[in-house]
Fold each of these.
Amino acid sequence: MALNVIMMGPPGAGKGTQAERFARERGLLKISTGDILREAVHSQTPLGLKAKATIDAGKLVDDATMIGIVRDRLMRPDAMGGFVLDGFPRTVAQAEALDRIMIERDGGPLIIIDVVVPEAELVKRLSTRRICNSCGANADPFGDGAAGNRCKRCGGELVQRTDDGVDVVRKRLAVYAEATRPLVHYYQDRPTFRVVNGAQAPEQVARELNAQIDAVANGHSTRPVGRDKRVEPQL
């Protein structure tokens, strides 16, 4: 059975890192909406051209365009063996469209992972994280610090993001919590919805994530009592 995973979580939760790691270890395709949006724009597909016009106008890409771009990517042959989706869906309309795409693919259930981290820890992580000023990659807070101020990927200088000040971070988290609450409510009663404690060391998060996904994939869809209660950030 193909593994089809959605990785949810607030900024700073580490979901991107965990998504990439899980996909690599399981031989799955990792699909980042940022990457496929850039690919569509670069390829100048009809949807890509529409997205580029929207972006150039300083607006957010609308649901219909984003859904079309994601559908095109998920329907390619290399995605049929399973995927890890990072950054989509972001709205209930997108989630409903993804359900329709999954029916069309007929390639196994959708496993939803919500990586939850307390607000205080998120603020600490985001206000101290660094990115590469050359390639834009996030520095690994558990690894790059020992390597100095250079990016492991390209050797560029690691700097703080301009939007990672404490006050800005708190506002971003509040916006995320408000925007995603309906999406969590849409998914949370499904037996394939699981919560993972992201306030642990990366290795521990990875072990818990693997265990939760394997439990769903192996048919043990009843969630452990007390394990999947989502903690809303206190903003």
Amino acid sequence: MNIAEAQRDVRTVFLGGAVGQLVAGLLWLGSAALGTWFSPRSAIEFLVIGGIFIFPLTQLVLRAMGRPASLPPGHPMNGLAMQVAFTVPLNLLVVAGATMFRLNWFYPALMIVVGTHYLPFIFLYGMWQFGLLAGVLIAAGLTIGVYMPHSFSLGGWVAAFALLVFALIGRQAARPSR
């Protein structure tokens, strides 16, 4: 199997990342709503705990759609996918440090971590669009953290919107050419 075939498998199985982005976007949306109308603590707990379940929920949705929910054993992209998946939980320590220093940096810090996590997806999926998503999350996280540090929930809303829009973009980009 060559790289292009392996990337096509990833795009096909995961619908260009659309289902994962939809699940993640909905989690960020719920977290932003909690942060806006309830408390920062509930928003943080919801997103951190919910984030653990992004991949299992993505698989559940794919199965409910009658689709395969993972790459076959021995697929050449399985190792990279697993390595990429662990970047976010390991970098939550950086997010925790930023949040302990300034509570309102939670979302901006997490946006930067999640954005950088999407950079290897460009290769994994063979989709340049993940570079766009990464750039939006990183730039927005930096901008909000530096220029709007008095807003707790703004980054949650921006990230949710970006992820939900990218679910549509990713799905469209992964459609087979006719």
Amino acid sequence: MSICESGIDEKIQPKKILMDVTKEHPLIRLGQSLPWRELFELVLEDLKKTHKNAWWLGRKLKIRMHLGVYFLQQIFNKTDSEIE
């Protein structure tokens, strides 16, 4: 793991962010059609094998978000840091 200090000394600026995403957007349609429960069952045993001091220790792992990020990485051919 590396540490990024960018922005550490900067003041936070208020901004308004608004984004409309329709139910027809391809990623929304994909997310609605995936069998999340089945996918969860597929990865659960592997996730349980993660040893102590693992990257997720100390916080709950949100499986749907974890899988969603993985799918986005695969679809767009991005690394962890690029998705972040």
Amino acid sequence: MELTNETAQLLQPERSVVLLWDIQNILVNNIFNKEEFMEKNLKIIKVAREKNIPRFFSKITPLPERFESPVRKILFKNRFASLKQVANGFDLAISTVENDIVIPKHTPSMFIGTHFEQMLRNAGLTTIIITGIATEIGVESTARDASNRGFFPFIVSDAVSSFNKEAHYRSLENMKSSSIVLSSSQLIDTWRRI
């Protein structure tokens, strides 16, 4: 997508936040484009840090078994079982630094069960730049919730991924109706110009 002057203005550092969705070891090791995905995310983080754009890392944090969602227990049983078997599987695959914010979460939306929305509103941030895993699950859910709440979601197409390549591309197409989908080079070029 080509950015217009109006959409490029939404990427002003003082109004933006980068949300790195579930970039955790076990997920990164199972996506179809691991090398490109990691390279693009590291570039985005580097420039975001230079521009002092807040970085939020979401982190899957299972609840104790008895209190976990029955829906998630049934639908994601095999996926969570494999996560628990890998040493350090829930650890972030990207090192955080001071001022990076890690938010544990229990659902596939950053807006449910966290203080993310309150933090953004308190800081006057209106643009959410989303990267991470999985495109068709948490990335898309969070993007839809963001636009429904009056935030501007930007999806970085080469910095999101999935276990399922077809679902990933289908989700990117779906999100074009409710989000702005752009490449990491478009994002970084825009940040460098403003």
